[in-house]
Amino acid sequence: MKNTYYHQLLQNNKDWVQEKLDNNPQYFKELSKGQKPPVLWIGCADSRVPANQITGTLPGEIFVHRNIANMVVHTDMNMLSVLDYAVNSLKVNHIIVCGHYGCGGVQAAMQNKSLGLINKWIRNIKEVYKDNYTELKKIEDDQERFDRLVELNVKAQVYDLAKTSIVQQAWKDDTGLEIHGWVYGLNDGIIKDLRVSMDSAAHLNDIFTLDLD
Questions:
Q1: Residue 98 appears among annotated catalytic residues
Q2: Catalytic: which of 7, 15, 48, 174?
Q3: How far is C-alpha 63 from the chain's CA centre?
Q4: 100 an active-site residue?
Q5: Measuring CA to CA, how many Å separate 68 from each of 12, 42, 124, 213?
Q6: 206 assigned to active site
């Protein structure tokens, strides 16, 4: 069964290539010339949240970085390298931090359990929970509290993104860069804009002048 599925992936690739070539014989030749995506996507590694499919975009339109619970951690050199390349080389216009309801990383942060290495990663989400404890404690329904923490986590990551020197410099240079926070619904496929968008005006606010990278 495992081998059958594995080989099916390779066959799916061949079928996909043929479909693209049937529609446009120059498709891969054009794609290989380079990329100029207008968007950097910082999303969760969850396999149910593929950036291109849920936004109806094509290969080459979104530059993607994914990790557990869509985190912007100021010591994460992988994320910072992607961010630097996207902002300073690709010159993206938008950065979207996209979380999703039902996120396992956020759910793990709500539990008092030892989960091994992942405990170190979700420690940042636990800080978000602590910072918003009063609001979350008032939510009696467990699912609603879970959903709200997902939203608060996305907002926290957007704020941390705004504090990076990479974004700060882009704003000071008035490049037009904008950052946004979204949450995707697994149960209905709808993206919710949390309306925490920020642009070059944000660097004038003292809260966004602390460099973390």
A1: no
A2: 48
A3: 10
A4: yes
A5: 27, 10, 12, 20
A6: no
In the beta sheet, which residues pair with residue 174? Answer: none
Q: Mean of the per-residue pLDDT values for the chain? A: 93
The CB density around residue 66, as the number of other CB atoms within 10 Å, is 18
Dig out the tokens for 124 from the structure: 């940042």
- Active-site residue flag, 103: yes
Catalytic residue among 65, 66, 98, 100: 100
Q: Which two tokens stand for residue 107?
A: 């759910």
66 tagged catalytic? no
Query: Which among 66, 98, 103, 203 is annotated as catalytic?
Result: 103
Residue-wise pLDDT for 91-135, tens only, equals: 999 999 999 999 999 999 999 888 888 889 999 999 999 999 999
Residue (of 183, 48, 71, 187) closest to 127 by Cα position? 71
Alpha-carbon gap, residue 2 to 184, rounded angstroms:
30
Helices (H), 77-117: 77-84, 104-109
Lookup result for tokens 């636990």: 126
Nearest to 181 by CA among 85, 76, 71, 104: 71
* Contact indicator for 158, 198 with CB cutoff of 8 Å: yes
Other Cβ atoms within 10 Å of 180 Cβ, number = 20
Both tokens assigned to 62:
């979104």
For every residue of 156-198, DSSP letters joined together read HHHHHHHHSHHHHHHHHTT---EEEEEEE-TTT-PEEE-S--B
Q: pLDDT exceeding 90 applies to what percent of the chain? A: 86
